[in-house]
Amino acid sequence: MEELLRNLMGKNVDVTCGVSATFCGEVIDVKGGVVYLRDESGEVAYVAIDKIAVVYERKDPHSRPGFIV
Predict the structure, then answer these.
(1) Side-chain half-sphere of 61: how many Cα atoms within 13 Å?
(2) Which of 2, 16, 43, 55 has the least CB density, counted as fewest CB within 10 Å?
(3) N- to C-terminal Cα distance for the chain?
(4) Using CA of residue 2, residue 4, residue 49, residue 32, what is the dihedral sign?
(5) Cβ count within 10 A of residue 52
(6) pLDDT the model gives residue 20
(7) 4 in Cβ contact with 11 (< 8 Å)
């Protein structure tokens, strides 16, 4: 899994841990059993690689329903 995440560096992914925990963002680093994901607002999430069940590479920007301001 760590090698796969290294190959996805610089790409946007969705990472699923268990049933209800999903993290989205750009893979900015992978080290020490942790993947670093930067979201749209610039916040960084630190996800333990051994807890990851599924990784999806996002091809298109994430769209949200509602008004754009």
Answers:
(1) 4
(2) 43
(3) 38
(4) positive
(5) 19
(6) 83
(7) no
Nearest to 25 by CA among 49, 58, 3, 54: 58
| 53/1 Cα distance (integer angstroms) | 10
Residue given tokens 């893979």 in the structure block: 27
Report the pLDDT value the prediction gives residue 19, as an integer from 0 to 100. Answer: 82
Give the pLDDT score at 45.
95
Pairing of strands 12-17, 21-31: antiparallel
Q: What is the pLDDT of residues 4-32, one digit of tens each?
A: 999 999 999 999 998 888 999 999 999 99
Q: Is the CB of residue 26 less than 8 Å from the CB of residue 37?
A: yes
Locate all alpha helices (DSSP H) within the chain, ordered by sequence: 2-7
Rounded to whole angstroms, the Cα distance separating 47 from 64 reads 24
